[in-house]
Write the structure tokens for this entry.
Amino acid sequence: MDNLSQRKQLRLKDYDYSQAGCYFLTICTKDKKNYFGHIKDGTMQLNKYGKMIVDCISKIPHLYADTTIDCKVVMPNHVHFILTVGVAYHATRNMAEMSTQEKSKMLIPKIVQQFKTATVKLSKRLDGLHTMQPLQWQRGYYDHIIRSEESYQKICEYIETNPLKWELDQYYID
């Protein structure tokens, strides 16, 4: 059996990722490489790549109507944010009838893929010819569909306090 057939499916089966709602997204760098700065005294110190990532996350609502970014944090090797999708994107088709290609064009996967592509290209421009090592993202991303106000508040608190708990973080690499 090859590696691809053993890969864990991260998306919720038969869920429409264009559906109105709130999504907690985590996108990690490849091999947990620290690209975006460092934590000092519980505060994220963004370098030029980290500032570029903040800017790109902030542009998502300008690129996709009826979306907002509610909370966000850029950590040394990953980003967390809550993406809210309004009712304009609610799909009317049965998910079981959609092809894999159609599902991959749903809003959330599309936003993440375009975010990753844009940030890699922009990081290369920031470096010019003096590339340290081009930004690389881990394959895939993590998502959580937020289903209650209580969950939303806990996730916002987690995002906001993430730099304070960096050394306890599962993505921490010194």
Summary: Strands lie at 21-28, 37-40, 43-46, 67-74, 78-85, 142-146. The helical segments are 3-6, 48-63, 100-104, 107-127, 149-161.
